[in-house]
Amino acid sequence: MRSWVSKATVAATLRNMAARRRARPRPTIGYEEDSAQDDTKSKFFPPTTRTLRSKAGTPVGGGDGNGRGPPAPVDDVATGATVGVLGRRIKKEPAVKSESPPADDAEQTEDPAQPRKRIKVKVDGPTSTPTSQAKAKKAKAPGGGAAANGKERKVAQPGNDHWREMLENIRAMRTERNAAVDIHGCEVLSDPAADEPTRRFHTLVALLLSSQTKDEVTSAAVSRLKVHGLTVDNIVATSEAELGKLIHPVGFWRRKSEYLAKSARILQNQYGGDIPNTAEGLMSLPGVGPKMAYIAMNVAWGQVTGLGVDTHVHRTTNRMGWVKTKDPEGTRLALQDWLPYEHWQEFNVLVVGFGQQLCRPIAPKCSECLNRHLCPWARNSSNRSKMFKPKAEGALHAAPSKQDSE
Questions:
Q1: Checking DSSP bridges between strand 82-83 and strand 89-90, what pairing results, if any?
Q2: Catalytic residues, which ones?
Q3: Could you tell me which residues are beta bridge partners of residue 53?
Q4: Rounded to two decimals, what is the model's pTM?
Q5: Could you give the residue ranges of the DSSP H alpha helices within 284-343?
Q6: Over the stretch 279-292, which tens digit does the pLDDT of each residue have?
């Protein structure tokens, strides 16, 4: 059963509790109560006017010095120690002597509120060292390297110090030039009897169809287009459905037929039937990326403005430790940072053929490669199960198979 208490009883209880709380004795060290305070009033309530005095007799404390506001710690007259509000001793921190600046420096002190001013000082002699001058130079590459797209990047270094020897070994292994890229590449697919603009258009079409497609399939599709009439005007007059039938079964043939039709109309309207003579202009065409643009500039226009990096170049250069990248575009930028320009022209065909014949994506022929003692991937024991194991001794460079021409 609940017991009810009246509001008056609760209010009286709260008043009594407040009175007892106010009547509790408080520490009086360092305090001097005013003599005019009523004794009867101070019996139940604390003094309302208190003066905090230090050892010297001067008022101290918080607020106005008369007890109003939070009182500050005071000094005990008997012991000389600092005592807080609750009578606890407070440890004094040792005083730190502030070193004042000399008179000569007094005028040179700065205002913290004012911002600092930069002062230019002239120094006799050279203003920069050879090291600083070398760091200030930007690495420039025709196809975009450290300063590509207007952004400065840290200049990369070859990951393998033996890259020159390895490149010479690749040249030695590629002397016969019988890889799929040598037989069916865009360099040999243009019609030698056609005029220059038409031949350049043939090169561009071969590159457009080559992505994600074997070289033999690309070569067959280009041959069918030549029979149909591989000119800008004829492609514009051909429907996309008909173009799809002609280029099938290249990879993504439906999308590529659309790209081919759109590119032909752009070339007819904006370039007079020819292809753009800059890498930027080529990359503005539908379906043309950096790899196609730089290879087209090299093959069609004879201008080496950048490296063409496809999946073969990306795979082989990462295996050999030349670069450490995640995609072909990153490989292109990294190679252009440090690979000397004199190697750019032949680099794509040279390394692509090496990747098709020996450094294949599946079962690479590391036992037949001259770089097997210099290649980090071949020396890694965990990759031995992935390598091609020949059943019998054979020729070092056999004719390319369907698997080799990937």
A1: antiparallel
A2: 291
A3: 59
A4: 0.60
A5: 290-299, 311-319, 328-338
A6: 999 999 999 999 99
What is the spatial distance between Cα 28 and Cα 208, in angstroms, rounded to a whole number?
96
Longest dimension (CA), the chain: 127
Strands 74-75 and 89-90: unpaired
Alpha-carbon Rg for the chain in angstroms: 44
C-beta separation of 356 from 180 below 8 A: yes
For residues 86-115, one letter each, b for 16 or more C-beta atoms within 10 angstroms of the residue's C-beta and e for the rest, the string is: eeeeeeeeeeeeeeeeeeeeeeeeeeeeee
When mean pLDDT is compared across 82-86, 239-243, 325-329, 390-394, the lowest value belongs to 82-86
Q: What is the pLDDT of residue 260?
A: 97
What is the distance of C-alpha 80 from the center of its chain? 65
Q: Rounded to an integer, what distance in angstroms lies between the CA atom of residue 75 and that of residue 82? A: 4
- Tell me which amino acid residue 62 is: G
CA distances from 119 to 115, 116, 122, 125 (A): 13, 9, 10, 19
Q: What is the pLDDT of residue 244?
A: 95
Beta strands in 332-373 (DSSP E): none
Instruction: Locate 240 and state its tokens.
Output: 């996309």
Q: Would you state the pLDDT for residue 246?
A: 95
